[in-house]
User: Which sequence fits this backbone?
């Protein structure tokens, strides 16, 4: 009895523990301890199912647990298709596609692509572009430079950045990495004379540019002097330029037009909307020195319809533009504020300037100053005009001799460089 009292005391002291029924074997008999009465009952135990864990317990297997990205990469190794019967069928991808995907995921770690086949490089560029690797801030620029160094104009041969001044400011280094461009449209970007991209135009990487559109960029005579210095003195830079658009730059005067006379290969020139004082003298000077004739009709070379972004990186430029537009979305909340300003008679000046960029071109068509080079078509003349053709050939020879003499005198003038020209050349 003392033993049962001790057992009862022990049970009451630890009653907070849910130990369940307790069985005690004594003299070959099994007794159950009654916790409520504090004694031992000689009762046959009821069968009770054995539970290792409580009812609310659950088990989660964590073996070979992977994150979503790794699980996605594992399923990318297979191609899932459906048969005619409607059954799901999968087949393994080729080793080439697996390796191509791995390299495109780590394209910024490539040392060099020089000597690599162009066909495979284009597929690698497309795979990295689909993963938006070229939109990343640091690694994207490094990866893009590997392609431009090896493949030049295949990556991009024509670039249209018309009215995309925000894209230029955000992706300036990426834009400067493009090489061997033949067409570059920077119209309506308000770059100014001191912009870094205009300085980059004089570098050897863009000496292949044949069509340059700099309409409405706040350029002046100083900017033209800086842009033409390598061509005038070193015979480098934009020496292959064929089409040049400098319209809607009112700070360009007669002095600045003199710097353009160093572009001997120029076929089309647009200086409409500039600040010329003596227009007739400028027209005569352009015609005599570089052989360009004033056009009375607007030329199709300056309608900006032929210039578009072309090359491997065409979609990359679109991705950059989308990223810039998404970054500007929070500013759309200010529309209510601008509406209130308009209600009280106040307008947002910056917004008006952006919207009026394209209107300025239409308002200045009355002062058209576009030039083109005439093509000689002697082979299409009739037989009756052979005598007239011979006289024209003689006159053309005389004109050629006169032009050669003028070129010699002009070269002598160009050799007399000013101190500002020498300071500018020392920067190259």
Assistant:
């Amino acid at each position: 009895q003392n033993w049962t009292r001790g057992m009862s005391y022990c049970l009451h002291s630890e009653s907070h523990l849910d130990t369940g029924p307790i069985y005690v074997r004594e003299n070959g008999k099994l007794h159950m301890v009654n916790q409520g009465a504090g004694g031992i009952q000689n009762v046959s135990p009821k069968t009770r199912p054995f539970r290792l864990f409580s009812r609310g317990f659950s088990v989660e297997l964590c073996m070979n647990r992977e994150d979503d990205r790794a699980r996605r990469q594992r399923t990318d190794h297979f191609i899932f298709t459906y048969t005619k019967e409607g059954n799901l069928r999968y087949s393994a991808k080729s080793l080439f596609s697996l390796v191509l995907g791995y390299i495109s995921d780590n394209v910024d770690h490539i040392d060099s692509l020089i000597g690599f086949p162009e066909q495979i490089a284009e597929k690698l560029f497309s795979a990295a572009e689909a993963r938006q690797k070229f939109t990343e801030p640091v690694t994207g620029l490094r990866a893009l430079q590997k392609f431009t160094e090896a493949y030049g104009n295949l990556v991009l041969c024509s670039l249209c950045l018309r009215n995309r001044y925000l894209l230029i400011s955000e992706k300036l280094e990426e834009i400067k990495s493009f090489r061997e461009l033949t067409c570059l449209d920077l119209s309506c970007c308000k770059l100014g004379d001191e912009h870094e991209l205009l300085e980059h135009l004089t570098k050897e990487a863009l000496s292949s540019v044949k069509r340059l559109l700099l309409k409405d960029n706040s350029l002046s005579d100083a900017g033209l002097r800086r842009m033409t210095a390598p061509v005038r003195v070193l015979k480098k830079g934009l020496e292959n330029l064929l089409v040049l658009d400098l319209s809607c730059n009112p700070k360009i005067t007669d002095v600045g037009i003199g710097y353009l006379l160093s572009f001997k290969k120029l076929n089309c020139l647009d200086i409409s909307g500039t600040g010329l004082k003596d227009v007739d003298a400028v027209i005569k000077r352009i015609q005599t020195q570089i052989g360009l004739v004033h056009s009375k009709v607007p030329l199709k070379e300056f309608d900006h319809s032929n210039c578009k972004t072309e090359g491997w990186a065409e979609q990359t430029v679109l991705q950059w533009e989308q990223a810039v537009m998404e970054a500007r979305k929070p500013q759309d909340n200010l529309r209510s504020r601008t509406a209130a300003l308009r209600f009280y008679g106040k307008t947002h000046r910056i917004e008006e300037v952006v919207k009026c960029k394209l209107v300025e071109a239409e308002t200045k068509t009355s002062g058209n100053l576009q030039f083109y080079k005439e093509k000689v078509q002697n082979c299409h003349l009739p037989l009756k005009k052979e005598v007239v053709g011979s006289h024209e050939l003689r006159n053309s020879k005389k004109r050629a001799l006169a032009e050669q003499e003028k070129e010699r005198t002009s070269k002598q003038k160009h050799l007399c460089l000013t101190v500002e020209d020498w300071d500018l050349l020392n920067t190259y």
User: Anything to note?
Assistant: The two ends are 111 Å apart (CA to CA). The mean pLDDT is 77. DSSP finds 17 helices and twelve strands in the chain. The longest strand covers residues 29-34.
